[in-house]
Amino acid sequence: MNKNLAKLWQAGQKSSRIILGLMSGTSFDGLDLALCRISGSGAETSVNLLNFTTVPYKPAFKESLKSIFSRRDADLENVCLLNSQVAIEHAQMINQVLRDWSVKNEAVDLVASHGQTIYHAPAFLHGRPEFGNATLQIGDGDHIAVHTGIITISDFRQKHVAAGGEGAPLAVYGDYLVFSKKLENRIMLNIGGIANFTYLPGDLDAGKVFSSDVGPGNTMMDALMQSAYPGQYYDQDAGVARKGTVHPALLMALKEHAFFSGPFPKTIGPELFNLHYLDKAIQSCGAGALPVEDQMATLNQLSADMIVDAIKRTVDMNSPFTVYVSGGGMHNPLLIENIREQLKGIPFHSTQALEINPDAKEAVLFALLANETVAGGAVQLGENRKGIPNVSMGKISFPD
Question: Which residues, other chains included, contact 182 with Cβ-Cβ below 8 Å and sequence gap of 6+?
Fold first, then answer.
């Protein structure tokens, strides 16, 4: 047997595995690295977060990624070059943080790499009937494996698409395995560039589990900040938005896209919700030269409104539930206030209340997916409804 296959087989047979989950979102803040000890699989899964850090991207690297991100006219040579370069950068970060944590590379069973999304193209958005859903993440798993010496599982979203999904959201699989609790209905709300949530029923019926994107989280707010205030990548503590006033006509115009009224589950990305979308809405409602502060306040309200709208349309509001928040948007106090104002009486916590650092949650979830790939099987949830296929995900790369 190939020695790498033997090592992979041995990892799958262990009672617990050390898996390093990687996540880099569309905000390009940096790479999240979550070192996890994961025991069991399927409904018997348990996870212990051993270490977590975020390694910031250097400004030049951010700009390189932005030059090809969500662009139909992206330079193909740059895409090709960055596919390997992103992986090499991530591998260097892995090697450094493992040294910082005094963890030897050979002590890590698997790296679980999400990669860097550069384009997301669900069928309803591209509108070309000869093609189906598609999504693309760069950061080649082979390069990570070779440069770290650790078996790497990557490119998780392609199997989801191949099995009939849209490639997102994938959080539902890990959410169900780790965060379900008997007698408590839970909503796991993640506010990244795009906001998504998973509904976990308190009766633990996997068939009732539901997950969907809901619309913009931070993506348009971040883009506006970067355009209006070069060098600032997000609205820290909602400082800009708090100085503005929500513009009702603009808010209404921003909500007019058919995506919002469409059926669930669904996915979306900055390919739709970007500054061009904002500019069109401003023009259509005659807002004219609206101050940046008012635009930010309105975008903040939009994100909050559509999160709440999605929850109210898909969850039984007469059945009590608790919301657990993660992602960069949880650090925007105005956004959280705007959400809570519309969900009065509903308990809100971060996932820290569940002993998972909310900033680490997405990286942990990809570690869980990798664990299922080697030690579990297809996760049976959501009644295999359209958009939530029951599949194991990830491609396996050997170090040599």
Answer: 202, 203, 204
Would you list the DSSP string of 289-352? S--HHHHHHHHHHHHHHHHHHHHHHHS-TTS--EEEEESGGGG-HHHHHHHHHHSTT--EEEGG
Sheet of strand 186-191: strand arrangement: 210-216, 194-200, 186-191, 322-326, 348-350
Task: Find, among 160, 299, 298, the residue nearest to 219 by Cα.
Answer: 299
Q: Which secondary-structure segment (H or E) carries 74?
A: none
Helices 275-285/292-314 angle, 10° precision: 100
User: Angle at which helices 219-228 and 275-285 pack, to 10 degrees?
Assistant: 90
Range from 103-112, 171-180, 309-318 carrying the lowest mean pLDDT? 171-180
Secondary structure class of 249 (helix, strand, coil) = helix
| pLDDT, tens digit (0-9, with 9 covering 90-100), for 360-383 | 999 999 999 999 999 987 556 655
List the domains of the chain with CATH numbers: 3-168+361-381+390-397 (3.30.420.40), 171-354 (3.30.420.40)
pLDDT in tens, 56-103: 999 999 999 989 999 999 999 999 999 999 999 999 999 999 999 999
Prediction pTM value? 0.91
Q: Are 172 and 198 in contact (CB under 8 A)?
A: yes
The two structure tokens encoding residue 121: 């193209």
CA–CA dist 16, 52 (Å, integer): 19
Strand 30-39 versus strand 152-154 pairing type: unpaired
